[in-house]
Design a protein that fits this description.
single chain; globular; SCP_3; Bacterial SCP orthologue domain-containing protein; 4 strands; 4-stranded mixed β-sheet; alpha+beta; 125 residues
Length: 125
């Protein structure tokens, strides 16, 4: 059964709650607030690029598989993107460019399908 689609209003509300932190105007949000923003934005990415060829990890909150292509079934997938919650949310909102995140080593991306630049941002606020 496919996951329930993300309500765009719910996504915007969740991300809006962390914007002051992303803009360096507030302290890190409480864990549940941050987790909701990360999870909903990752699920939105999953809906925008359905598939199972790339695993996007944002520990400790969530990981999703997305992007059409060959599916992995065991072990570490060949295409992996991993970053921290703040970097992910900056990317997801368009406040950080994919190329800059890679250049600054804020994202690790391995595999030929691990370039998410065409899929970002997933929400504009």
């Amino acid at each position: 059964m496919p996951p329930k689609p993300v309500d765009p209003n719910e996504l915007r509300t969740a991300v809006a709650a962390v914007l002051p932190w992303l803009s360096d105007e507030a302290d890190r949000p409480d864990r549940p607030v941050l987790a909701t923003a990360v999870k909903l934005s990752l699920r939105t990415l999953e809906q925008l690029a359905p598939g199972r060829s790339v695993e996007v990890r944002v520990p400790p909150f969530a990981a999703v598989q997305c992007v059409a292509g060959p599916r992995h079934t065991r072990g570490t997938p060949p295409n992996v993107v991993e970053t921290d919650p703040r970097t992910w949310l900056l990317l997801a909102t368009g406040r950080l460019e994919w190329s800059q995140a890679l250049e600054d080593a804020k994202v690790t991306a391995s595999g030929s399908r691990a370039d998410l630049s065409a899929l970002l941002p997933v929400v504009r606020i």
